[in-house]
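Q: Entry one of two.
A:
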Amino acid sequence: MGNFLLSAEAGIDSAISEKTSIGLLLQIEHDSDPSSGVEEKTDTTIGARVTYSI
């Protein structure tokens, strides 16, 4: 299959009021051939956010 990079992101938001929402985010990045000295091929990030609409 060769050398490849893969990036995926998924999230969900939920309104808690008319102008405010909260959300969760999952981001995954995979490098089939990372730089030398890097042991992990996959990075995973989980985050939370609060959004306010003006």
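Q: Entry two of two.
A:
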Amino acid sequence: MFRPVFASVIALILVWGSASAQAAGDLDELLRVIPEDANVLMVVRVQDILKSPRAAKEDWAKKQEEAYLAGAEAIPPWLSVIVRATHLHLEDSSIGWSVGVARTMGPANMQRIAEHNSGIVEKIGKSQVVKTQEKGFFTQLGPKMIGVIAPAYRQQAAKWLKFASSNTESRLPAYLAEAAQNPAPIVIAIDTQDMIDPDSLRNWLKSTKSLEGKPGKVDGVSYIYNNLKGITVAVTFGEQTTMQLTLNLGVPVGINSLEVKRTLIEYLEDSGAAFSDLNNAELTAKDKVVTLTAPLTDAGLRRIFSLIITPNPGGSHSMSETPPVPQADVDAKKSKTASQRYFTQVDQMIDDLSNKTARANNYDRTAVWHDSYAKKIDSLSLKDVDPALADYGRNISQKLRAIGASLRGVSLKLSTAQNSLVVDYSVDAGNFGGWNAGGYLGGAAMYSPPTWRATSNLEDVRKRQADAVVKGADQREQIWQSIESDRQDIRKKMLETFGEDFTQGK
């Protein structure tokens, strides 16, 4: 089981909260297009989030353009419900396929999707599609229903399009189908049946601090995890945001609930996805169910959303006419608005991962968040964004990835070119693990687990990795200083380009 891909999934799994006005019935139309071999499911009820007490109080609907909820491009408020499903191969953390489908508040428009993605409308079989920059295919599944499949393999996409056009009912595995019944605004579930490698799991548990000095507990906790049916996370939004992580077991948890909590948190830390909101979570165990419930901080929420990429065809559902405006003024306004949004989104992510966070507990266990934020920056729309600002974003993304690599023990080489810091690094997946292109539409870059997970020299490799992380601290500090310098330079340039109100509110 304990492969770092779980970190991306578990880190997402949050809260049963106040019941939403929409129940599972509203998903039937969307769930029917999900292939039956899905093992991860995510549901985001956008309108329920925007209508929640906290969202109304803080005007999230208006702030969505500034990515208030997300660490990157905000979920469009004109989407009603989003469903994303994936088939993950835990052994190598690869994705077989990923499918997303969303209901829109108004008619979808393939031409606008094409324009937003700098693509063209083409055909696969009888279906119109648009190939995205993220290597997937968008399509229109109904008047108010859009879908996307990745990777962009034409034959695989053709099979899915035929399935989506002919299938009439949900074919989800039982665990995911039950999780879809949860009415929380955000629900993420993973079907873990037959997914866990018992030997890898036991070797990892024997090395944990949580079970240090408790050899008799290893077999009991291992037995619990080997009978894990699935994990569900739900997030709810009341006056505060709440998160609940639920482990559904095939056997009673008995007296092992505290060890299950501690090893789960340690696993996230060990995988570079430390999630401090869970540390003080309330633990509840009853028979075959273990739950962790805790308030979710804004930073925690943004980290969760940093792992979610939503189908964003661009444009609004509003078709209202507006008075004509001179094209030059339109272009200038578009560029300023797009650039402000992009700048704000990148700025927020840097704040979340800044040196203040760097000095906090478990900073050396946050590689996942650096990588997911880098991926999120890469996924931001560059349409109408000032070219200098776009270059800045790409530079920040590369540096965050370098920090993430350093936090896994990868050695960096820093040099200076044209007064800018240049980072050169390579990841040896056989030593400390590596990252591949990963998911889409709700996926994060997926961690390729190092081979020592199932070997006997785990402690030795852990020590070497920890030593490498400590040695890389000065380099990471240099990169952070470079990021802050770049940040100030681009702020000054954007103020000169767009005026003093460009960073208003910052």
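A: Comment on entry two: The first helix runs from residue 5 to 10. The chain has 18 helices and 16 strands.
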